[in-house]
């Protein structure tokens, strides 16, 4: 009887200890989720200069392969360029479709719409073309995703904003797949003609962080076309 009585405090201490460990674990998990939903651990983008971008080697994806310097894209009329995180991603397809909705206004301004991808897998680029109404090129060195390439890994799946973006794109009827690299974040650029410079640089903060269409148009309206070369 005495030994049973003496074991009760030990049992209570053990139970309290387990509760403390459990509550501590929950506290750590909650703190981790809260921190993941701040910008504290997001890698900060480094602005891409015109000099950095214009020397990028791009490759055409048509039947006749062509390698050229990216500066050719905006030399005369500037350009709007989407750096696609992953063609099969339904969030990227949503943004591509929305950017393509600006094409009539961009055409009036004489500003072309382009996209770059990091890789070409199967028919992913061709499938993406259903959503994107501009020419697409391959940026194998991923310079349009730099100078400092930023990644969002598993932390993205516990960010409230990402889930809100998932729900929005799903409700809008977009679907996709998991083919290809999708952790290096993308962005959208509006680049002026010639040496006018980068007029807008939107770098994706998290999965599904879209550029403002109004800001794209505002920047495109500032482009000053270069006079055609004359003999």
UniProtKB/TrEMBL annotation:
The chain crosses the membrane at residues 16-36. It is found in: Cytoplasm. One of its GO terms (cellular component) is cytoplasm. GO terms for molecular function: antioxidant activity. Its main location: cytoplasm. Keywords: Antioxidant, Cytoplasm, Membrane, Redox-active center, Transmembrane, Transmembrane helix. It holds the Pfam family AhpC-TSA_2. PANTHER family: PEROXIREDOXIN-LIKE 2A, PTHR28630. Belongs to the peroxiredoxin-like PRXL2 family. PRXL2A subfamily. This is Peroxiredoxin-like 2A.
């Amino acid at each position: 009887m005495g030994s049973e009585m003496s074991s009760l405090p030990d049992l209570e201490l053990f139970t309290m200890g387990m509760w403390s460990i459990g509550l501590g674990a929950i506290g750590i998990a909650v703190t981790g989720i809260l921190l993941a939903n701040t910008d504290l651990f997001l890698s900060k983008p480094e602005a891409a200069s015109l000099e950095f971008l214009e020397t990028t080697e791009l490759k055409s994806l048509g039947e006749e392969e062509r390698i050229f310097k990216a500066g050719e894209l905006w030399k005369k009329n500037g350009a709007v360029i989407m750096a696609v995180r992953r063609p099969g991603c339904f969030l990227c397809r949503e943004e591509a479709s929305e950017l393509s909705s600006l094409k009539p206004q961009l055409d009036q301004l004489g500003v072309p719409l382009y996209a770059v991808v990091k890789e070409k897998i199967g028919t992913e680029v061709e499938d993406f073309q259903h959503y994107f109404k501009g020419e697409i090129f391959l940026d194998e060195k991923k310079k349009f995703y730099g100078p400092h390439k930023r990644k969002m890994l598993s932390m993205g799946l516990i960010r409230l904003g990402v889930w809100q973006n998932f729900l929005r794109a799903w409700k809008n009827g977009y679907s996709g797949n998991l083919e290809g690299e999708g952790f290096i974040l993308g962005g959208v650029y509006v680049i002026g003609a010639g040496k006018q410079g980068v007029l807008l640089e939107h770098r994706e903060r998290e999965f599904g962080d879209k550029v403002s269409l109004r800001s794209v148009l505002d920047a495109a309206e500032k482009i000053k076309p270069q006079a055609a070369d004359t003999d």
